[in-house]
Design a protein that fits this description.
six-stranded antiparallel barrel; Elongation Factor Tu (Ef-tu), domain 3; 613 residues; Rossmann fold; disordered N terminus; elongated; 16 helices; 4 domains
């Protein structure tokens, strides 16, 4: 929910150029429930004359009509259920200006039940105000919030010790909170900018220095905000743009394929060579497309934009566009992460979750829990086999396919992820380490292969137009060996006579040729599959429809093949009535003995999939 409490007239920018020149900073204010965050923000707005004319009087009259005492929190806690319960449920955003810059203050919920909303509110903040009530002291949630700001990568934190009026502005109580909380933050590598004793109700040290605490020699909140350093736009980091979508235009003979997304880091120019992760496909930037704007030669971090490429390559949403010659993302399907769990149900092993990072969406499972950290006490446990609500975990996740990402110490924004369970965000964190497995090993080889691939003068589109077909791998599997091979050879014959470039690649041709050096073949099945996929990749690059038969392929086998070949290039057919593996096939032929009829069915299927033009 967004609550705009400023005067609408004040929110208007008289001069758009002035808006571009002035800095804007996002600040999140967090703390335990009833410790007075919303009151502080409301008071800050009132004391800086940021409220519309009559707004303060209006809210006071509303409170009088409802027979409840006025609170500055009501200036931003605009939802009726929030006012009736006295807690902030959603993250409200309020706007105001100082002479230094424009601010958006995100008032995040403090109640333990709404930690998820707090994380959402803080995810894009550049600094944090963390509130602790002087009369109640440091609570478990105070420590959780401190830990979460650390996990989210917020470095600039000011701790506000609120309600000093309730303890008679006692310096000793303030100093004890400073010492105890500083010790906790030190253990999670957080060094707060300052501690400020304040009273949101009275207005002490909000916009003016209070005369009731002569022992305090620091700044008020307003001056502290202006001392925070604006985070620099990450232009000087390696280029990263998660692919949001690919747009195709056909009207008015417009043949552009625009690759769209928001640039997270770095910059890029027309003519720069780019490579996509995890596919490893490369091309060169032909044009930079900006909506309703003349052509620009360069774009940088923070801009939503689109590109056309000199060579049309097949890429999909979720890939990361990077620049050749710069540091590349990590690539793996096994990762070690720091994870904060917010789901109502614990995160457990052997359950499938949705892992989201950038625009990438992959299925994931919890493979191993290294340790569980109590975010309020920092005590660690290594004997739990599940991650409970509000636990912080160091764990290993296994993803169903490799993807591109950065480690948190390199580029934080492309290391942040969330985990979805049953359509609800239940966890999030940062990627700490890349771990190897057979798929990521193959994917790294494919990435290098595509990067080093020597292209001829004939493009894939030229071949497809000439041959009137899109090359593909036709995998025929099942448990009927004799009829499976007969079908493959009949398909090759029929397609050949129909003038289709086609080739039947018998497995024996590989096993006793290219794979002759592989010992203990059953133990090296993965290497057999890798070499098969690499051979087929060359044939597909030549524009040839390739037919391969193999016995009872599994979904894991297909995943390995898809590591080397684009998924849309693979068509899988199961021959036989009984399906004896977990494979997800595209076409099933139960009557295995009817070769001619099955050949026609396959041909018609390929035609329906637009393999043939």
């Amino acid at each position: 929910m967004r609550v705009d409490v400023l005067n609408p007239e004040k929110q208007k920018i008289d001069n758009a150029q002035d808006f571009d020149i002035r800095q804007r900073m996002d600040i999140v204010i967090i703390g335990h429930v009833d410790h007075g965050k919303s009151t502080i923000v409301g008071r800050l707005l009132a004391d800086t004359n940021s409220l519309p004319n009559g707004k303060l009087k209006q809210v006071k009259q509303l409170c009088e009509r409802n027979s409840k005492p006025f609170e500055y929190a009501f200036l931003i806690d605009a939802l009726k259920d929030e006012q009736s319960q006295g807690i902030t449920i959603d993250a409200a955003r309020v706007f105001f200006k100082t002479q230094c810059r424009d601010y958006i203050i995100i008032d995040a919920p403090g109640h333990i039940e709404f930690l998820k909303n707090m994380v959402t509110g803080a995810s894009r903040a550049e600094a944090a105000l963390l509130v602790i009530a002087a009369d109640e002291g440091i609570q478990e949630n105070s420590k959780r919030h401190g830990y979460l700001t650390s996990m989210l990568g917020i470095k600039q934190i000011a701790v506000l010790v609120n309600k000093m009026d309730r303890i008679g502005y006692n310096q000793d109580i303030f100093n004890k909170i400073v010492n105890d909380y500083s010790e906790f933050l030190k253990n999670i590598d957080v060094n707060p900018h300052c501690f400020i004793p304040v009273s949101g109700l009275i207005g002490d040290n909000i916009a003016e220095i209070s005369n009731k605490m002569s022992w305090y020699t620091g700044d008020n909140i307003l001056n502290t905000l202006d001392q925070f350093k604006k985070e620099e736009i990450p232009i000087n980091k390696p280029f990263r743009m998660p692919i949001q979508d690919i747009y195709k235009f056909t009207k008015y003979n417009d043949n552009r394929r625009i690759i769209a997304g928001t640039i997270e880091t770095g910059s890029i120019n027309i003519g720069d060579e780019v490579i996509f992760c995890p596919s490893g496909k490369k091309s060169k930037v032909k044009t930079i497309e900006v909506f309703n704007s003349p052509e620009v030669p360069k774009v940088s971090a923070g801009q939503a934009t689109g590109f056309t490429l000199e060579e049309q390559i097949y890429i999909t949403r979720g890939e990361v566009m990077t620049k050749i010659g710069e540091a590349q993302p990590s690539l793996s399907s096994r990762i070690k992460v720091n994870l904060f769990w917010l789901g109502k149900k614990p995160m457990v092993k052997n359950k499938e979750y949705l892992f989201k990072i950038g625009t990438s969406r992959v299925k994931a499972r919890l493979e191993e829990i290294t340790r569980i950290i109590d975010a309020s006490s920092l005590n660690a446990a290594s004997d739990k086999n599940f991650i409970d609500r509000h636990d912080v975990s160091e764990c290993i996740l296994k993803l169903n396919k490799p993807f591109g990402f950065d480690l948190k110490e390199h580029i934080t924004i492309t290391s942040r992820f969330v985990i979805v369970d049953d359509y609800e965000i239940c966890g999030g964190g940062l990627v700490r380490e890349t771990l190897q497995d057979k798929e990521s090993w193959m994917q790294n080889k494919v990435f290098i292969r595509n990067y080093k691939w020597e292209k001829g003068n004939i493009s894939a589109k030229d071949r497809a137009d000439k041959y009137k077909q899109d090359p593909a791998l036709l995998l025929i599997t099942g448990n009927d060996n004799l009829n499976r091979k007969k079908l493959a050879k009949k398909l090759e014959e029929n397609m050949f006579h129909a003038n289709k470039p086609v080739y039947f690649l018998g497995m024996s041709n590989l096993l006793y040729g290219l794979d002759a050096d592989i010992k203990d073949g059953d133990k090296n099945r993965g290497e057999h599959i890798r070499r098969l996929a690499e051979t087929v990749n060359i044939l597909i690059d030549a524009g040839i429809l390739t037919i391969v038969t193999a016995s009872e392929l599994t979904e894991d086998d297909i995943k390995l093949i898809k590591t080397s070949l684009a998924a849309e290039k693979i068509k899988t057919i199961w021959v036989g009535k009984d399906v004896t593996t977990d494979i997800n096939f595209d076409l099933k032929l139960e009557q295995a003995h009817n070769i001619e009829q099955n050949s026609t069915k396959v041909y018609n299927y390929l035609k329906s999939e637009n393999i043939f033009h």
